[in-house]
Specification:
alpha+beta; Lipocalin; 2 domains; eight-stranded antiparallel beta barrel
């Protein structure tokens, strides 16, 4: 009976559906880019180039924190996702590397195994909390009872 109305209505609904899909994907991409930009700015401002000290290092029930007394750790920038890592203790300097993933949820540290305490640090960590000035970390992909807190100086 109203077939002349159905055809324009179908076209209108199809048009509205297609426009909403395009806008939906566009907004999602914009939010992803905005979120990425915020993460990059946080990492650049508060992590890269800053001096960090170990304020808690725990392996199960063993407190390893005293092993890092006097050490300062600095993630130096190659880009916002990896670079050299410098550890200093007095006049002694040790170099390694650091790397993060694209959403800054993972931090991989590699330091010389020959220095006491460094094998504990040299692994992939996941951020459990990133509150300025302390980074709280736990092992990536593992339930090992390891904890690492590094505080910016």
């Amino acid at each position: 009976m109203f077939s002349f109305i159905r055809s324009p209505m179908k076209k209108l609904f199809t048009f509205i559906f297609l426009v909403s899909m395009v806008l939906g994907f566009s907004c999602k991409k914009t939010l992803q880019n905005l979120n990425q930009s915020i993460l990059e700015k946080y990492f650049e401002k508060y992590v890269i180039g800053s001096d960090f000290v170990v304020t808690l290092a725990k392996d199960s029930t063993s407190d390893l924190t005293p092993m890092y007394s006097g050490y300062k750790f600095v993630l130096l920038e190659t880009d916002l996702y990896h670079g050299p890592l410098k550890a200093t203790n007095g006049s002694n300097e040790y170099y390694g590397t650091w790397e993060t993933n694209s959403d800054y949820s993972k931090l991989t540290i590699a330091l010389p195994d020959s220095i006491p305490g460094f094998p504990f640090l040299s692994r992939s960590w996941r951020f459990t909390k990133k509150e300025n000035p302390t980074l709280q970390l736990a092992p990536w992909g593992s339930t090992d009872p390891l904890v690492l807190y590094m505080t910016r100086q």
